[in-house]
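Hello again, I could really use a second opinion on something today. For a while now I've been wondering how a particular protein folds. Please have a think about how the structure follows from the sequence. Here's the protein in full, and shout if anything looks odd to you:

***
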Amino acid sequence: MISSTDTIFATVCQRGRQVYSTVGTGFTSMSDVVGRLRGAASGMVTLTVRNSSQGWSRTANLYIA
């Protein structure tokens, strides 16, 4: 669960290279995080999201059209 006051770090890697990174607050769901990343890359990417306020991280492979 993401609270709007949590600090979120998001990184997108493609073919082993970091292509996008952002830090922010105001996210309320993983959909908000993915929405921020649209346009940063297309195709198969690895998304790593870290919530420093709650102390968790998640990694997912996604296809962005």
